[in-house]
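can u do me a favor
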């Protein structure tokens, strides 16, 4: 069950990522509310603080000396004007000169700000927890004989603002929590829904095996990339299945092809065992047939070996500059010699030298020529072989006036063991492997094969070959 476990963990991961992002955004929102409120309050008391510090400096300049009681009542007055709760007046040595009230421990601000970096940097934020906004300003006092600086510290009460801010923050926190619950419910079920097809796919793919290769993923629920994935897996399965089917057919074809000569050989061997010792005619017939069947088998096994090497990519070619004109002329000559009943005409462009494996290429062209003879009517076998030069390529073409190939068969004649008309072609002795071999050789040389055929009229096989370049990649 480990695979379904992984599925769930993916869901969990996606959901927790969603939720993490949501929580992150919520925290940012709350922070921005807090910072916004702090700036709002700071801004709100800027003007009163300027007003208070200006009037204090003015008063000091006017009076010259400080009469404590009088000045304190002045401070009270201006603090009432500006809305400040307390005002402290310090000299530049941080000594308290006078304050509106002594109820607080008056040196706390400077004592604290002298040592506490946080308080120094963000006094507003630290005091805000007590409902106090601190404003500070340094003013120069010019009296008749003296000129000195005073520091004016003002405490404004922000209880009202704080209660609104607290309300705001509580409100938004509550909403964010409700949102989180909805988000978890919705997000988790959505993720679950979106990823459900993965489990279905896993189950389907698990069921696929060699005996059950036609199983496919029904991707009705899968969307977007998942439906593409399902499609890709299905098309991969199509390809695997068709190659598996081909392999299966190939193995059964091979055993079928081998069974016939083996049973013929064993039949003749039995015949020899019974009567061969006494009857010289039977002895000769038996031995001849056994040799013939053994040769057929050998030929088939060699052909299969060739194809197997190609499939294993161990097939070796030996390319060399080859006189293709000579090569084709030789095939024509040999064919004419071996088949006196065939009217073979050739048209060969010469000279034509190309880099290829001469022996293999000859083998391929021979397949076309042999087929042209095999699949033409006895007594009227007309075969035309040509070699034509083009600037970028050359073509070897073999045409006949034979039985032709139907359109349906044209798609399949290059398949291994395919014979268009079993009953007719069986007699001609082919295994249905000739064109497969020709195709392997031509493709390995970077060439192509073109077929034109009409049943009852004839066929034309044309090999289109590059002069040399493609060889390297074909090896
Ligand atoms: P085979 O050994 O049967 O000739 P091939 O692979 O060479 O096998 O050819 C496959 C099938 O293609 C043949 O069985 C035949 O039906 C068809 N075929 C090939 N060449 C010709 C041709 N020139 N004319 C008609 N049919 C052909």
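np, heres the sequence
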């Amino acid at each position: 069950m480990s695979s379904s476990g992984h599925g769930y963990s993916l869901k969990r991961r996606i959901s927790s990522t969603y939720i993490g992002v949501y929580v992150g955004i919520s925290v940012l929102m709350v922070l921005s509310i807090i910072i916004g409120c702090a700036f709002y309050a700071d801004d709100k008391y800027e003007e009163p603080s300027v007003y208070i510090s200006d009037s204090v400096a003015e008063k000091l300049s006017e009076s010259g000396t400080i009469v404590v009681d009088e000045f304190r009542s002045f401070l009270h007055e201006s603090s009432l004007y500006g809305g400040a709760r307390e005002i402290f007046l310090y000299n530049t040595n941080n000594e308290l000169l006078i304050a509106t009230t002594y109820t607080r421990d008056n040196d706390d601000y400077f004592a604290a700000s002298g040592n506490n970096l946080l308080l120094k940097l963000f006094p507003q934020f630290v005091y805000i927890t007590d409902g106090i906004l601190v404003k500070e300003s340094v003013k120069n006092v010019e009296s008749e004989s003296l000129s000195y600086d005073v520091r004016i510290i003002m405490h404004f009460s922000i209880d009202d603002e704080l209660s609104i801010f607290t309300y705001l923050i509580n409100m938004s926190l509550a909403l964010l929590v409700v949102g989180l619950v909805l988000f978890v419910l919705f997000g988790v079920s959505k993720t679950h829904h979106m990823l459900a097809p993965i489990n279905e796919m896993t189950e389907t793919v698990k069921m696929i095996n060699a005996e059950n290769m036609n199983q496919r993923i029904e991707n009705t629920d899968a969307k977007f990339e998942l439906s593409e994935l399902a499609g890709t897996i299905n098309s991969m399965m199509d390809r695997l299945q068709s190659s598996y089917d081909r392999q299966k057919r190939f193995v059964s074809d091979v055993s079928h092809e081998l069974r016939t000569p083996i049973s013929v050989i064993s039949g003749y061997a039995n015949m020899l065992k019974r009567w061969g010792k006494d009857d010289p005619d039977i002895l000769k017939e038996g031995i001849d047939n056994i040799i013939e069947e053994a040769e057929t088998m050998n030929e088939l096994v060699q052909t299969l070996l060739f194809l197997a090497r190609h499939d294993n990519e161990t097939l070796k070619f030996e390319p060399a500059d080859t006189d293709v004109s000579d090569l084709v002329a030789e095939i024509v000559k040999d064919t004419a010699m071996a088949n006196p009943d065939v009217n073979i005409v050739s048209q060969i462009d010469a000279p034509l030298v190309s880099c290829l494996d001469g022996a293999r290429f000859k083998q391929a062209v021979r397949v076309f020529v042999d087929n042209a003879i095999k699949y033409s009517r006895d007594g009227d076998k007309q075969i035309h072989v040509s070699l034509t030069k083009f600037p970028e390529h050359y073509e070897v073409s073999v045409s006949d006036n034979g039985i032709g190939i139907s359109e349906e068969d044209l798609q399949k004649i290059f398949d291994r063991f395919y014979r268009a008309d079993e009953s007719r072609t069986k007699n001609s002795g082919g295994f249905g492997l000739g064109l497969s071999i020709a195709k392997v050789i031509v493709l390995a040389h970077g060439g192509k094969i073109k077929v034109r055929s009409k049943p009852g009229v004839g066929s034309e096989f044309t090999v289109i070959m590059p002069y040399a370049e493609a060889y390297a990649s074909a090896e």
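Confidence is low (pLDDT under 50) at residues 1-5, 470-475. hope that helps!!
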